[in-house]
Amino acid sequence: MEGCLHVSTKVLMITQNFYPEIGSASNRMKNIYQLLKEKGYEITVLTTVASYPNQNLYKNKDFWNDMNLNEAQHIHRVTVKKRKYSLNMISRLLFYLEFTLKMIFFVLFNRGKYDIVFVSSPPIFIGIAGVIAKFRYRAKMVLDIRDLWPESLKGVGVFNYTPILWFFTRVEKFLYKKSDAIVVNSPRFSKHIQQVANIPEENIIFLPNAAREFEIHEEIHDDKLFKAIYTGNIGLAQDVDFLKSLAKELDKEKVHLSIVGYGMKREELKQFVAEQQLNHISFIAPTTREECLVLNRQHDVGILALTKNEVFDTVLPGKLIDYMTSGLPLIASVSGFSKQLIEKYNVGYITESRDAKEIVEHILYLKNHPNTRMEMKSNSIRLVRNHFYWEKNILELINLFGRFENSSKKMKSKVTKVEMYE
């Protein structure tokens, strides 16, 4: 049963990232929103003004390419004065606190009625707005965990102040305890959540980042020039030193690498490429998801690199799914869950040593063995359709919502029976 709910079920979605922002978080929220709308839910979105990775990007009308969302009256955006993406962690925390407080004010003064509050973290503070909304509207609360805070803060090595991390851990536990259910986008998050807050396994569901049917690409890339691509964030969680070494080695082999990146380490990488005069490395400005998927299809392999830290062993990067959606074999410097997935389904090659020369050897092998590339392409498409397919996976969330409605009906039934005997 697909958790059939009454069409009047109202959901308040609270998220920092939403359309038209680029990145996995925004794309995840947009797809959940659209698919729930198609199933008859009434969705109100509480989010921030589009500013990831920077606000100026969204002056370009190309990013505002969905007329239905552009004209939607039920998407509320809070403005934020603080600078967002900075190496200064205090500045970033102030940013998160500012928009969380504004979201709390919205919740306290908004007269809407909601049955379910769906709040997406990180940042961890946004969950507090979700808890207040839960009690304000007497609603069920679903906490969507896209990354583990404060674990990921320690993983990127920019914030190791023990008293603050202790406080964040207490907030994390509080949010897990107050949630009626928790959604995770990596199955490895479940064990951590159970350890921190003793949450029953049945209250945690796995809903990975995924692809829509119209995004899946099965056509053969017939350009004779072999090209690799790196897309997405170039920040603290990504191994920029490894990317520098890889760029240098690929240039030696005259293999073209396109970098469609953004983030606080992008300029550092771009400057390195210019200084080293790496003529086979090119940078492409951040673009829409649709255009990025088109660019993926014009290449032959996708590059993935995460900083070596056990924190990142649990994650399932969105770009991994995007590469597979485009039929690209993966060349990855990762460990943990991502490594196991790539190896189990034979969709690419892995190096845990962070050795750029080893990665280049894998790339050259795929360049010289088109049949292997085609096999990995087929494996990627099959894996996406079987496990990372939004039209199917959204049913997990709908079934969860259905459990809430059935529980609510039982409660109302009990109240009615008591009243009959009074």
TrEMBL record:
Residues 26-209 form the Glycosyltransferase subfamily 4-like N-terminal domain. Keywords: Membrane, Transferase, Transmembrane, Transmembrane helix. Residues 214-380 form the Glycosyl transferase family domain. The chain crosses the membrane at residues 93-110, 116-137. It comes from the Bacteria. GO terms for molecular function: hexosyltransferase activity. Pfam families: Glyco_trans_4_4 (PF13579), Glycos_transf_1 (PF00534). InterPro entries: Glyco_trans_1, Glyco_trans_4-like_N, Glycosyltransferase_grp1. The keyword Ubl conjugation does not apply. PANTHER family: SULFOQUINOVOSYL TRANSFERASE SQD2. This is Glycosyltransferase WbuB. It comes from Lysinibacillus halotolerans.
